[in-house]
């Protein structure tokens, strides 16, 4: 190690390394990870803690999985990277084939990106270029819903909640999109929400290019779960007004909410779908955008004739190889029982949080558990309380939540629930 001691490493980190959503001049504490295996992280202070976050929802099979490790080793012995402009390779082509095979029927074309946010940028470009190719260049705005989150780049920020979201400070410089009310929770008044959504779409139809939402579960915008029937309303509205329906499955894809893709809960097929996060099992950054033939043909009729995007690391062979190994693991179907089992454990284990002071709501879907507080979380205190309980959590805003790796045992889930409760008490 370059740094003589852990304290030296942490001191340099504090002075020079900018962490996500953290002040550089007054940063929150960080902890040094020295190893990870299964569902556990090993910290420099000697503690081993259960990762209740799946490394921001990506490491669904845990760490050092033999099949995923082997895929990376085998590919690096061949070649680690090659540009995708004018060249191709078997791992990327096979991954595209597999994604077309497992995603909803009709999604035929695959564009590889290097992060979730970038995939949303690509999807928005697809929508706008499709409308230009269809002879409707005046259609430039997106219809979305309150409470959404789609990433941190500028186009993606424009379709995040402009008031309650993390990017509200940029609202004045972002493209002005059209925002409907947040969809109701399961069992809520879908009819009343649908009436408002349809009316808003009708009013702005002349300028709308598409609809973009996270299906069933809104992620970093507030971890809201909503009724899957709302997706059917969106599909009908898109069809009625000639809009492109984009479903952002970056957080929800690959089993997290209980179906392989969250849109399956409503039987809805989007025109464009974004996937990422768990695509590589948490090993490497990679995302993909899938679209229908109709979207591709419309886009190709625009004045450029091509999709105006091309990431340097597009289709990276290492990422594609480990993604294929990840899809092999998912193809066994074992994830379904794992997610169902975790969901049952979270419902049982978090139930007691409902009676805690300052808890506004407790909700679960698939392998996701959320405790919403009536006030902002004290992140430092909540994090330390969870670590004292043997679990790594990363609360934000007014939420203490968990998305455990699918391989978590009953004991792991029970420990995670106890940690969530401890964090909620002090947070």
UniProtKB/TrEMBL annotation:
The modification N6-(pyridoxal phosphate)lysine is found at residue 277. Catalyzes the transfer of the alpha-amino group from S-adenosyl-L-methionine (SAM) to 7-keto-8-aminopelargonic acid (KAPA) to form 7,8-diaminopelargonic acid (DAPA). It is the only aminotransferase known to utilize SAM as an amino donor. It is found in: Cytoplasm. Belongs to the class-III pyridoxal-phosphate-dependent aminotransferase family. BioA subfamily. SUPFAM superfamilies: PLP-dependent transferases. It comes from Nocardioides islandensis. PANTHER family: ADENOSYLMETHIONINE-8-AMINO-7-OXONONANOATE AMINOTRANSFERASE (PTHR42684:SF17). The lineage of its organism: Bacteria, Bacillati, Actinomycetota, Actinomycetes, Propionibacteriales. This is Adenosylmethionine-8-amino-7-oxononanoate aminotransferase. Its cofactor is pyridoxal 5'-phosphate. HAMAP family: BioA. GO terms for molecular function: adenosylmethionine-8-amino-7-oxononanoate transaminase activity; pyridoxal phosphate binding. It comes from the Bacteria.
């Amino acid at each position: 190690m370059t740094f003589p001691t852990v304290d030296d490493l942490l001191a340099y980190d504090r002075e020079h390394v900018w962490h996500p959503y953290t002040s550089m001049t007054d940063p929150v504490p960080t902890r040094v990870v020295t190893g990870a295996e299964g569902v556990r992280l090993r910290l420099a202070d000697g503690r081993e803690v259960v990762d209740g976050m799946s490394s921001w929802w990506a490491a669904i099979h845990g760490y050092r999985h033999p099949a995923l490790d082997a895929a990376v080793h085998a590919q690096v012995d061949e070649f680690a990277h090659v540009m995708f402009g004018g060249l191709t390779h078997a791992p990327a082509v096979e991954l595209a084939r597999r994604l077309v095979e497992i995603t909803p029927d009709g999604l035929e074309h695959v564009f590889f990106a290097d992060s979730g946010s970038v995939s949303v940028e690509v999807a928005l470009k697809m929508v706008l270029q499709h409308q230009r190719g269809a002879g409707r260049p005046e259609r430039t705005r997106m219809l979305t819903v309150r409470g959404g989150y789609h990433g941190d780049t500028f186009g993606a920020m424009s379709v995040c909640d402009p008031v309650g979201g993390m990017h509200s400070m940029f609202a004045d410089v972002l493209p002005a999109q059209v925002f409907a009310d947040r969809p109701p929770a399961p069992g809520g008044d879908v009819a009343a929400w649908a009436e408002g959504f349809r009316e808003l779409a009708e009013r702005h139809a002349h300028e709308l290019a598409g609809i973009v939402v996270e299906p069933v579960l809104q992620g970093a915008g507030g971890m809201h779960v909503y009724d899957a029937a709302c997706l059917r309303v969106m599909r009908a509205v898109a069809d009625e007004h000639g809009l492109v329906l984009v479903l952002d499955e970056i957080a929800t894809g690959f089993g997290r909410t209980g179906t392989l893709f969250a849109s399956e809960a409503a039987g809805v097929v989007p025109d464009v779908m974004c996937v990422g996060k768990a695509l590589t099992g948490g090993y490497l950054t990679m995302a993909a955008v899938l679209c229908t033939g109709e979207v591709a043909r419309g886009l190709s009729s625009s004045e450029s004739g091509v999709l105006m995007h091309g990431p340097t690391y597009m289709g990276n062979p290492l990422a594609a190889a480990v993604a294929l190994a990840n899809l092999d693991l998912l193809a066994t179907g074992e994830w379904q029982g794992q997610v169902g089992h975790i969901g049952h454990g979270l419902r049982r284990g978090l139930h007691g949080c409902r009676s805690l002071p300052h808890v506004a709501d407790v909700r679960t879907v698939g392998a996701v558990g959320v405790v919403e507080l009536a006030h902002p979380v004290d992140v430092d205190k909540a994090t330390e309380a969870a670590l004292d309980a043997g679990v790594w959590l990363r609360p934000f805003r007014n939420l203490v939540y968990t998305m455990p790796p699918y391989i978590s045992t009953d004991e792991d889930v029970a420990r995670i629930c106890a940690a969530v409760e401890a964090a909620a008490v002090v947070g």
